[in-house]
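Please fill in the sequence for the structure shown.

STRUCTURE ENCODING:
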């Protein structure tokens, strides 16, 4: 619950710092300082640093972006999102990101929509907790 309170306070601060309604201004260093070790961060969908690095600069850049998240939030607090989008290049990108997750021994989640996620094998307890909070149910073998 402490992570949730910290996250809520950061969002409120960012909203107040913004000059316009619904235009928050986040301080990334403050986010890391407040949330490191308290939450599980996801790599992000298309807008996330890992996916953007992959699209713009290739797999090595995506690996660097993923390592940066691990360095900032801690290995046990990063999970890799595997996107299932309906365009041809997505399957290749998803495979690259899945390979990076395996190489770095990170858990993966496969979102079906913005608010639900499917379970993947090897999810550590913090990831299970986050997925349950999103309304996802673990498969029988993980219960």
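FILLED IN BY: designer on duty
SEQUENCE:
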């Amino acid at each position: 619950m402490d992570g949730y309170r910290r996250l809520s306070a950061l969002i409120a601060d960012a909203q107040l710092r913004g000059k316009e309604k619904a235009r928050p201004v986040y301080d990334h260093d403050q986010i890391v300082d407040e949330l490191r070790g308290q939450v599980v961060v996801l790599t992000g969908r298309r807008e996330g640093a890992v996916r953007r690095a992959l699209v713009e600069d290739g797999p090595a850049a995506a690996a660097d972006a993923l390592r940066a998240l691990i360095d900032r939030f801690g290995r046990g607090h990063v999970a890799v999102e595997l996107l299932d989008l309906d365009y041809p290049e997505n399957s290749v990108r998803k495979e690259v990101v899945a390979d990076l997750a395996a190489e770095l021994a990170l858990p993966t989640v496969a979102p079906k929509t913005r608010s639900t996620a499917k379970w993947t094998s090897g999810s550590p307890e913090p990831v299970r907790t986050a997925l349950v909070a999103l309304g996802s149910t673990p498969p029988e073998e993980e219960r």
